[in-house]
Every structure is written in structure tokens, then in C-alpha cells.
Amino acid sequence: MLVETDVPLSGLTTLRVGGPARRMVTAHTDDEVISVVREADVAGEPLLILGGGSNLVVDDAGFDGTVLRIATSGVAVGPLPEQSLQFEAGVDWDHAVDLAVDEGYAGIEALSGIPGTVGAAPIQNIGAYGQEVAQTIRWVRALDRESGDVLLLDNADCRFSYRHSVFKGADRYVVLAVAFRLARSPVGSPIRYAALAGHLGVEAGSVAPIAQARQAVLELRRGKGMVLDPTDHDTWSAGSFFTNPVLPADEAARLMPPGAPRWPVGPDHVKTSAAWLIERAGFGKGYGDGTARLSTKHPLALTNRGGATTADLLDLAREVRAGVQAAFGITLVNEPVLVGVQL
Question: What's the CA gap between 154 and 283, in Å, rounded?
Fold first, then answer.
């Protein structure tokens, strides 16, 4: 376990912004993680859990408490017949996907290239190109900060919904490990996204080898600046800054103009594209004239062009959100977690 003080968080987030952590502890085992959390809770000390830093927007003033960086790295294969892949929370997410594909497990290949750690995946219910981790998570092992117990939460206990779960927002649970129930298959599930199907040269609804699907997803994400590259400022972001709005069907019919993308969500709701709304509200790729701008590759990503502050990025986010609200009457919701700041 490594303990440091006054560590700049700008070097530990993919947006490359954020002031110093008063105290930072890097934990390499579950026991260390649990010990640090319990110590902070007993002392009443503010605690921030840090994985890959890809979904955080941290105040320029920093964090006046303990930042716990989870660096656990265990990987295991569960026993038959309910065989599953198990990863500790600190494992890099794309490494987990790569390992699954290499071992012939299908079910998370479309989630290739998403930055962050395995521990963050269930919190956000990460998803892309027709897959969500909610579809394949078998259980999550987590520390319950209210009871002090380590619990095993099955898929239903996680209460997954679009970019949400029981783990998001309340800070009650600290994810320690995640198990996935994945099919041993050389091909994945039918490809629902036309862009991915087209890149693979197959019809939508067809299947493709999981290794090819992974490479196609990585290529598509790189084209949008969504695969981390220290030399590309379009990747100095938190990924998609706003979630795709999910609206009651009657509200969607009233607010959304003809031609707006729409996908049914259950019997009574409709999802639309935040990127489409942003562009149609007048905020095109590359919008902005300072150190914080929209990505030149994707309007949904707010990027640090070098030297931006959290305040700069939030000013841009507020401008975009207000513009969409004025144009369509739809309020965009931020996807990354805001630490010490508000939008």
C-alpha cells in the first residue's frame, strides 16, 4: 500500500484536469481497499474512489480528503457448469475484454476500447454498439459501507438501467470484483448497430467472429477519438459527456422534431441521440475557441486541448446544455461523475 500527499489529480484523470488530493492511497489487495475505506469512514473523512479516472470531473481546488486508488489485478475463471470470468476491480477494462476474446468468450467484445477499470463498469452500466455489462454480469462483490460487510450482489440486486445501477450516486458500495457469465463461442450475438455491421461488411442482425468485432469496434472508436492516445487531444476527455436522453413517449412526440433518431425503450419511453441534438442546436465538432472544446471527431465529447481547467470544461458543458434546452426543450444529463463541482 502506497500513501502520498498533495497528488495532482490532473495526472490521474483522462480529462487531465483537477486539483490535488490531500491524501492518496494506492491499494493492491482487497484487504487494503477494505482497510482504507473503513479507516476513512470511522474518521468521518471524505473518500473518493479512483479507478482509471475516465469518468471523473474533479474540482480545480482538488479533493480535501482521501483518494483511494484501486490497483487490484486478479483474474480467475469460475468452475463449470456455471463458468464465468472474474476480475478484480482494478483490472483495466479493455485488458479484460481482450482477455475474454482471446480465451474465446463472447458477450463483451463490443465494449472494447472503453477506458477505465472493471470496478467502474457496473457502476455506470457501461455500454456501446448494442452491448451493456448488465447483459453479462453474473455478480458483483462489494463492500457495503453502511453495514461494513462484504456482499455478493447478483445481477438483479445491481438494479441495472441505462447508464445506472445501485452502485451509482449513493457511495454506499465499493466494488471489489465482478464476474461475467459469457458464452464460449467464436461468434458474438447479432450485431444491432448499422455502423458496426457496415464496418465488418455484414448485414445488421448478422453475427461476426468476436475477434473481428473487437477490432472493428476499436477502429470505430479511434475514428471518434474514443480510444486513449496521449498525442491526440480529442482523447483528452471523459468520453461521452452527456447521456442519450430517455423520454416518455408522449413527451418525445411533442419535443423531438421529425427525423430525430429515436429508439424504443420499453413500452412507454423513447431514447434519442444527444450528439444529434447537440449538433442540431449549433454545436458542431470542434466547437469552442479556448482550451476546452468539443472533439473534432465527435460532438458528444468535451475535450481539453491543453491547459484547460475544470471551470473551462464546465463552462462549455453549460453552454451546450443550455443551447440544447433552448432548441428542443430537452435537458441533457452529464454522464461523468462530478467531484466538488456542479453543472
Answer: 41
For the chain, list the domains and their CATH numbers: 2-70 (3.30.43.10), 75-184 (3.30.465.10), 233-339 (3.90.78.10)
Residue 214 C-alpha cell reads as 473487437
Q: How many CB atoms lie within 10 A of CB 339?
A: 19
- What pLDDT is attached to residue 144? 97
Q: All 3 cell numbers of residue 333?
A: 444529463
Judged against a pLDDT cut of 90, whether residue 44 lies above it is answered with yes
On the question of pLDDT at 79 being above 80, the answer is no
Over 90: is that where the pLDDT of 75 sits? Answer: yes
Distances (CA, A) of 233 to 16, 110, 268: 10, 24, 40
Query: Which residues are identified as catalytic?
Result: 163, 240, 335
Q: Find the largest Cα–Cα distance for the chain.
A: 58
> Rounded distance, CA 312 to CA 314, Å?
6
Side chain identity at 169, as an amino acid letter? Answer: G
Q: Quick check: helix, strand or coil at residue 172?
A: coil
Contact predicate 110/128, CB 8 Å: yes
Is the Cβ–Cβ distance between 255 and 330 less than 8 Å? yes
Q: How far is CA 260 from CA 85, 145, 218, 242, in A?
A: 39, 43, 27, 17
Residue with the three cell numbers 480467475 = 76
**CA–CA separation, 219 and 227 (whole Å):** 9
Q: What backbone torsions phi and psi does residue 199 show, to the nearest 5 degrees?
A: -65, -30
Give alpha helix (H) positions in the chain.
30-43, 93-102, 120-124, 194-200, 210-223, 249-255, 274-280, 310-328
Q: By C-alpha distance, which of 119, 22, 113 is closest to 74?
A: 119
- Residue 81: asked if its preceding bond is cis (omega within 30°), the reply is yes
In this structure, the chain runs to a length of: 343
